[in-house]
Amino acid sequence: MMEYEAHQNRAVTLKYLAPETVDAYLAQCGDRVTCVVGFGSSPAVTTKTGCPVLWVETPVLGNDAAYEVWTGNKPASQYQDELITGAGNEDVFFGCLSLQNNAAEDLSRVAFSAYSGIFEFLQRNNYPNLIRVWNYFPEINVPNNDIERYRRFSIGRHEAFIRYQKKFEDSPAACALGSHGGPLAIYFLAARSSGEQIENPRQISAYSYPKQYGPRSPTFSRATLAFKDAGQTLFVSGTASIVGHETVHPESVGLQTRETLVNIRTVIEQAVRKGFAPFDYANNLALKVYVRHAEDFAEVSAIILEEFGTLSELIVLQADICRADLLVEIEAVCWNPAR
Ligand code: 3EB
What we know:
The chain is of the alpha+beta class. It has a single domain, classed as CATH 3.30.1330.40. It contains 6 helices and 20 strands. The protein has helices at 19-29, 107-124, 149-163, 253-273, 281-284, 297-308, and strands at 12-17, 33-40, 54-56, 65-72, 77-80, 85-88, 92-99, 129-138, 143-144, 147-148, 173-179, 184-191, 196-198, 223-226, 233-239, 242-243, 246-247, 285-291, 313-318, 328-335. The chain has a 6-stranded mixed β-sheet with strand order 5-6-7-12-8-11, covered by helices on one side. Strands 13-14-15-20-18-19 form a 6-stranded mixed β-sheet. A hairpin with a 2-residue loop joins strand 9 and strand 10 (147-148). The longest helix has 21 residues, at 253-273. The model has no long low-confidence stretch (mean pLDDT 96). The structure holds 3-(2-carboxyethyl)benzoic acid (3EB). The site of 3-(2-carboxyethyl)benzoic acid has 12 residues, from strand 11 and strand 15. 3-(2-carboxyethyl)benzoic acid is lined by residues 135, 174-176, 206, 218, 220, 237-238, 240, 242, 322.
C-alpha cells in the first residue's frame, strides 16, 4: 500500500521527508497534496520536480533540509492570489503567505495585513474555521522601533483578530519562531467544520498573558481538536517550559525539555477528556522540535526518545524561540486511530 493511503481515515496527515525522498512521495500522493513546506539553510522555491514550496530558513539538525508535506483524503484544487498560495478540498484548505519586511518597517503592520488577508480569504471561500497557523520570521528577539519583533508581530496579529471580530477563545493553535533570514512566512490550515479549542490548566491562556510579555497578547490556543466526526486530529501549539505565565528553568535545556513534555501530555489529557481517544505514540504522534542552540540537539533528542520511544514523524530544527530565556519549543500533531 502506498504510504499516504495508509492514513486515508485521517482528514489531513503529514510526513517529514528528506530532500531525496520528497518528490517520489509527492508523485504518490497526486492531487491529495495540500501543502509543502521546506526547512533548511538554502532556500528553494520548488522541489526538484517543480512542486511549489514555502521555504522557512531554519537549519535542520541531523540533515541538510527537511520537507513537511500535508495531504488530505480527497482531491484538492490549487489556489493562488496576490497574497495566498494554497490548495483545498471540500473539507480543508492549506494556505501559504510570504511577506517581505525590511528592518525599518513596523512588523505589526505586516502581521496585521497578513492576518487580515487570511480572514478575508476564509470568509470569501467558506473555510470559516482557522485550525492551526505556523509563523516564522527573522530576528524574532531583536527590537523593532523599541519593541521586540515578536511583540510587534503579536500586536498586528491581535489587532487583526479584533478587526475581524474573532473571539480570543476561538484562536487557532499556533507557533511563532525565529528563522535565520527571509520573509515573514506563514502557513495555515482552515476547515469547513469547527474545531474545539483546548487550554492547558498548568498555563494561563496566552491571550490572557499579562502586559510584561508585550502590549497585545498573543492570539493562540494551546491546542485545537479538529475533525471530530471523522479523522480526529489534535493540533498542539508550540509548547515551551512555561508554568502559569512564567518561564521555568531558564538555565537548563534538559529541564525545559522535560517541563515542555509535561505541558504537552497535559494538553493531550485535556483533549482525551473531550472525547479524543488515547493512541499509540509511535504511529500517531508527530513532533517538530525547535532548539535555540544547535549544540543542544543530542540532549533534547535523547529526552524525547526516552519519553515517547521512536516516532515515525519527528524533526528537529534550529530556531530562535519567542522569549529570550526559552531554549526549546515543541509542537505536536496527534491522530485518533479509532475515528
Ligand atoms: C508560549 O507558550 C510560548 O505567538 O503564536 C507558543 C505558541 C508561543 C505560539 C505564538 C508563541 C506562539 O507563550 C511561545
